[in-house]
TrEMBL record, chains A, B, C, D:
SUPFAM superfamilies, alphabetized: Homeodomain-like
Ranges of residues in domain HTH tetR-type: 10-70
Lineage of the species this protein comes from: Bacteria, Bacillati, Actinomycetota, Actinomycetes, Kitasatosporales
Protein name: Transcriptional regulator, TetR family
Keyword annotations of the record: DNA-binding
Annotated source species: Actinacidiphila yanglinensis
Single Gene Ontology MF annotation: DNA binding
Length: 194, 194, 194, 194
DNA sequence: CATGAATGAGAGTTCATTCAT
DNA sequence: AATGAATGAACTCTCATTCAT
């Protein structure tokens, strides 16, 4: 048999995650009902509950799986010297992570109000804070700090805000990264000047 | 009579709008029920329906009242020459508009998924698109375009993303604006160079 | 008009209570669904929620209304001297209270497990404890105390346990009360003897 | 093999019964889900279904095992003369039976509404009826009959109602039995007098 | 002897909305 | 200008039960 039992084992489980993420990203968390997810997969609602304790737990499992790369990035960066080179590398890797899970990060960005008081919101905020602190120098000028933060948020916004710009996605991604890296460099220059 | 009919009429109406916006911004649109709004105001749900046709209509009325300044800004800008000075003025005025209605813009930012398929979403997107097109030059390099867009989105993000930065709000706002203006100037420099 | 507005005001509300108590007593609390109650009344489930916050709250409201006489009895007794005459009067009045709300007390007796961890359980236990303490003397012999308690519980049991005995209800009630009064008298005699 | 098949077979089976009875008694029948029972035993729900056809069947098996002594008692008594001595012996043995399976009888008492329309309810009622008929004389005065019934129900109530009385359990049990025996004797005296 | 995966039915609850008064 | 009463549709979630393996 080509598809042995254990290959199938988590088949339904991950199909649920896939469909759920797609719908959460497209329609929002609240507007996506478990009925809808179940119908798309041609299973019953109860089947979802066999695999996930609650709706929130379903979202949590998706988020944990997909945002692991970001956590690794943070862990790595915290062991590096706080040089411009490190920060630039953080930005580059973050770009990879974001574009590797666009649905999830789109979801986070467009459902902030919802996410805020879900368990998941906490870890999301923590990640952003950790990244912020890796990029900005608390003793630098406020302008420099804002520039660093802008580098970070420009990447989030850049994922979806460039839809009215002509050009292929990879090119856009590169442009966004370039602008972000530049902001970082300027923030660093400020620091040196001061 | 000290309080004529028309003064009273809009009193309740605008109290509803105030409370609704506060709750929409704090908790999100879907998670805020009309029951909750009514309870806060110590009126019945039916009273809300006297003043507004639907929940969505309530949101619409809030948005229209508060985002008028942005529409005026766009109208004004569309009559001006496409110079850097104009663009910078757009950004300055936009900063005023945003900080003049933080709850509303926070709401828009944190409820994008929800807002997307409300009638209001359309006009929101149109405004952003209009502003984008006022700021970026479609024939400039992609990097320059991204820089212009980033100037715009930096202002949105800057409203709430600077909470971990020390300093008073006005100072932060100024710093955000400065960074945005700078991005715009760089985009313009690119254009000249090309 | 024979039935003015305000007479109707609580009409639905108390019709709900009536039907609910009937079904709770007949079938048990858990086995009675709100759907069933609503259907009997030819209203929607949501109508129930207009009048009562939760299923438990519905039960609570019924219990509070119907067990007021018992609370009054307790309050009265606590102001009386701890004589045999008082205790006998307590039993007599309690008999009236029980037979005046048989459905409710049947419900309590047959749904103890359920009631135990509802808010209502607490007040039920408190009432029983208060009555126990009014009837038994903590310093008397254990047998005397058990006799007093038995007087109390005999009345509960007597409401439904006499169905296999021939005779009319009023006669049965009188017999149960007589036996209970007798137990009380014997407990008192013990006390004197000791 | 040290542990033959049949020893193991009934091991799990009776562990299930033990846990189930404990939970049924503590929380009630409806509020105890098969999931919960399975989790406590660290087996799957399906395992329960290997041993018992349905949830009700599980309860039935418990009840049959534990209430065998009562059935034997009834069978024995039905072959004895209807003397006071016999009746007193019935009460004494019934006391043993009750205290030998407190969880089960507590369950019966606190879940009457539930039990009523389970198959088990029938046999429960039959046992009570049989005992009633062994104790009371249908031709005696109503008061005498109520006294006999009270003797019986006092034992049920006595199992849990004496928690607010000081003293050790065995002593309480003895006191309850004494009061019950006394009631029986009084009923018998009535009979003779009439 | 037992599990993993799933189902169908139904539970309690909440929501935006309506309408006669 | 506002209320009281109600609805219909939907929601998340839980349950006892089944069955192939």
């Amino acid at each position: 048999m080509a598809t042995p039992h254990h290959a199938r084992r988590s088949d339904t489980r991950s199909r649920i995650q896939d469909v759920a993420l797609k719908l959460f990203a497209e329609q929002g968390y609240e507007k996506t009902s478990l009925r809808e997810i179940a119908e798309r997969l041609d299973v019953t609602k109860a089947a979802l509950y066999y695999h996930f304790k609650t709706k929130e737990d379903l979202l949590l499992s998706i988020s944990e799986d997909l945002s692991a790369p970001v956590d690794e990035l943070i862990a790595w960066a915290q062991g590096q010297p706080r040089t411009l080179a490190t920060k630039q590398e953080v930005l580059r890797r973050y770009s990879d992570a974001l574009w590797g899970a666009t649905d999830l990060f789109r979801f986070f960005q467009e459902n902030q109000a919802t996410v805020r008081d879900l368990a998941i919101g906490e870890s999301f905020r923590e990640r952003i804070t950790a990244l912020s602190e890796l990029l900005k120098e608390p003793d630098s000028s406020m302008t420099a700090q804002v520039r660093s933060l802008t580098a970070l948020f420009a990447m989030h916004a850049g994922m979806h805000a460039t839809q009215n710009v002509e050009g292929d996605p990879e090119e856009k991604r590169a442009a966004v990264l370039e602008v972000a890296l530049d902001l970082l460099a300027q923030a660093d220059a400020d620091l040196v000047t001061n």
